[in-house]
Amino acid sequence: MKILVTGGTGYIGSHACVELLTAGHAVVIVDNLSNSSPRVLERIAQITGRQPAFHELDVRDRAALDRIFDAGKFDAIIHFAGVKAVAESVADPLKYYSNNVYGSLTLFEAAARHDVTRVVFSSSATVYGETARSPIREDAATAPANPYGRTKLIVEQQLGDLCAAGSEWRVAALRYFNPVGAHPSGIIGEAPQGVPNNLMPYVCQVAAGRLSELSVFGHDYPTPDGTAIRDYIHVVDLARGHLKALEYLERTRGMHVINLGTGRGTSVLDMLGTFERVNALRIPHRFTARRPGDTTETYADAARAAQFLGWRTELTLADMCRDAWRWQQANPAGYV
Ligand code: NAD
Ligand code: WQD
To answer: For a substitution probing ligand 2, which of 202, 229, 268 has the most ligand atoms within 8 Å of its CB?
Structure first.
C-alpha cells in the first residue's frame, strides 16, 4: 500500500514508518517539524534501508496538501500530526483547536477531494476523562478533562460523522494509553524539547545525570504502593497496532474506536524499580504532592484490539525500560 503519514517524523510516527517500510509499504511523510527533526528521516533509512518520501508542510495548509494528494493516489492515511501537551493546551487552547481540530478537518477535506477514505487516527485514552473505571472499555463514557483531550474527541466525532454520511469511509480511531520506550536499535526514540513532562523521558534524563532527581507525584493514592497506575505500552507494539488497523480496514467499513494498551496497570514505583533493575542504575527520587488532574488508575481493556485487529502487545515493561535507556544513552541530546 501507499500510505500518507502525517506527523511521521514525530515519536510514534517515526516508529510506525519503520514498521510500514519493513512490511514493504510505500510511505510519504508530511510534517511541519514543529516538534521533530528532519534527521529522523536518515535514521529511519538506517534501520530499514529505505528512506521515506518527505514534505515539510502544515496539515492546515490546504493548497500544499492538494499538491501531495495530486502527486499520486494513497491507499490510506495515518494521521499522527498534532500537538499533545496537556498543560500547554490549558494555557493555549487555540493552538490545540487550530493544529488538532482545524488541521484534521483540512486533511480530511483534502482526502475527500481525492477519494482517499481510509484513515487511522491517533486518539488518546485522555478522552475518557478522570472518572472512568479501569480496565476501560471503548464504550465507557467520554469526558475529557482538558482542551487537548477535547480536540481528540472532536476529531473522533468528525470521523464518526463522515462514516455515517458516506459508506466508503473506513476509519480506525486508536486510543493510545501511555506510549514509552524506543526502537530496540537505539536509533530512533522520543526526543522531548526542554524538560520532559512524562515519566519515562524524565526518568531517562535523571539516569543520564541531566536532571538531578525524579519527583514522584503522589504517594497517597489508594493503590498497593500508594503511587498512581498507568498502562505503559512499548512504542514498537503501538506502531505495529497501526499496521493491524490498516489490515482491518481492508476488510471492514465504517468507524471503529479501539484502545491500544497492554491491559495491565503499572505504578510509578513499579516503573522505577524495573528501570533500575534492568539497567543496573539508581534513580534518585523523592515523593511530592499529587499532580493536579492526575487519575489514580488508568489502564485499558485490550479485548477489542485482540478481537478486531488480532493484535496484542508482545514487549514487556523491562523491554520498555531497556530500550528507552539505550536510546537515551546513544542520543543524550536527542536528534542533534
Ligand atoms: P510528536 O510531537 O512526537 O509527533 C507529532 C508530529 O506532528 C511532530 O513531528 C510535529 O512536528 C507534527 N505536527 C504537529 N502539528 C502539525 C501540523 N499542524 N502540521 C504538520 N505536522 C504537525 O508526538 P507523538 O507522541 O508522536 O504523538 C503522535 C500523535 O499521537 C499525536 O496526535 C498525539 O496527540 C497522539 N498521542 C500521543 C500520546 C503520547 O503519549 N505520546 C498518547 C496518546 C495520543
Ligand atoms: C505517568 C505517571 C504521573 C512525571 C500523559 C497525558 C496523556 C497521554 C499520555 C497524549 C503519572 C507520574 C510523571 C514525573 C511522576 N498523552 N509522574 N513524576 O499523565 O498518564 O498521560 O501522557 O495523549 O494525555 O496526560 O503520563 O508520563 O505524564 O505520567 O510521578 O515527573 O507518572 O503523576 O502518575 P500521563 P505521564
So the answer is: 268
